Amino acid sequence: MKRTYIFGFMLSAALLLSSCGGNDQSQAEAPAQDSVAEAPVSDEKQPEETFDDITEIFTQAFPDSTVFARRQSSRISVDVTSSISADQPPDNWEEILQALNDALAQSEELAEGYGAATVSAQLETGDETILASGYSGAVQYDIFARASEQASESKSNPPTITQHEFDQISVGMTLTEVQDIVGGSGTLEREIGSSGSSISVIRTYRWEGTGSPVSYATVLFEDYVVYSKHSIGLE
To answer: Where are the domains of the chain?
Structure first.
């Protein structure tokens, strides 16, 4: 009887120890909740679109100027800021125009590769006076070629806008071209954005009409290039 009691006691103790050891092993094998590291969240911005080959064409044509290219709607716009004065043409002005014309022609061949309809370019002074501009592979405007015409037109062409003048304004023209057509500088009504930024500057100019007292025309420019126009009551 005593022997049976002792044997039962020893068996119970062995089972108890086995049970405790199993729990320790189970806990040791359980993975820690903090052992799984979360993947880092990347806040890296997508790189801005660049047009290095187009920029290089205009940089080679105007090595002493600042060249900046950007996408604007369906075209690629290039701003060439030079040290040329708008007071009078330099002695090599014809050569400068030819360089701009050649750069426009070369860059136009690259437009389709960027999904753009055309490449436009403006040769400007430091204060953003447009000296020459072009698109579709050729120079379209020359400030000095218009100087003598503008002088004679100023007497006969008032600063108001007519329907005929409005019809001559087309998408892709520069502000200077529009001012020459109308005969006046117009009034800057609204400006959204800032010069020198990667975002286009939208400007709205207004010209009073020659029709009823409420006749006028507004032209919207994207970085001084026409992209829409509107008129009321012109004659």
So the answer is: 52-142, 149-232
The full 3-state SS of the chain, as one line of letters, equals: CHHHHHHHHHHHHHHHHHHHHHHHHHHHHCCCHHHCCCCCCCCCCCCCCCCHHHHHHHHHHCCCCEEEEEEECCEEEEEEECCCCCCCCCCCHHHHHHHHHHHHHHHHHHHHHHCCCEEEEEEECCCCCEEEEEECCEEEEECCCCHHHHHHHHHHCCCCECHHHHHHCCCCCEHHHHHHHHCCCCEEEEEECCCCCCCCCEEEEEEEECCCCCCEEEEEEECCEEEEEEEECCC
Q: For domain 149-232, give the fold.
A: Beta-lactamase Inhibitory Protein; Chain:B, domain 1 (3.30.1450)
Distance CA 143, CA 177 (A): 9
pLDDT at 129: 86
% of residues, the chain, pLDDT over 70? 72
pTM score, whole prediction: 0.58
Phi and psi, residue 20, nearest 5°: -65, -40
Q: Which CATH class is domain 52-142?
A: alpha beta
pLDDT for 216-232, tens place per residue? 999 999 888 898 999 99
Q: What are the φ/ψ torsions at residue 230 (nearest 5 degrees)?
A: -155, 145
